[in-house]
Design a protein that fits this description.
The structure is a single chain. This protein is of the alpha+beta class and 138 residues long. Helices cover 25% and strands 38% of the residues. It is built from three helices and five strands; from the N terminus they run βααββαββ. A hairpin with a 2-residue loop joins β2 and β3. The longest helix is centred in the N-terminal third of the chain and has 18 residues. The protein is globular and about 45 Å long.
Amino acid sequence: MNIDVNFHIKDDYSSENKIPLDYKLMNLAFINFFDNAIKYSKPDSKLDINFEKNERGFVLDFSMMSLRIEHDELEKVFEDGYSGKHATEEAGDGIGMHVIKKSLGMINIGIRVEPDYGVSENYNGKKYIKNKFIFESK
């Protein structure tokens, strides 16, 4: 897909701001997240990753041009068996985002999607928008 991944985190920031996590559950969430990110991102685009520590823990966000998620789908994409309206031939069994939310919830991390409908592109007959996926400790 030729996705360019950009980490917007200073090298020493991670060693100075360690946070305790359950490795197996976080790994399960990230494997599924990156699988979906690759599958649904616009070819030849970029994925920006930002991390900030806050008073409750942290916020980790992933911004990318990926398939459009409609307003009425913002919670549905996390349901077991649901693939988005614009996920046609790419769609699997609709379990990835469900597994991500479930595994993150077990370690008190929430996930939400913030679409930016003002940033959109059509490519190969598919609708892409700037989607931000936000992981946040509770």
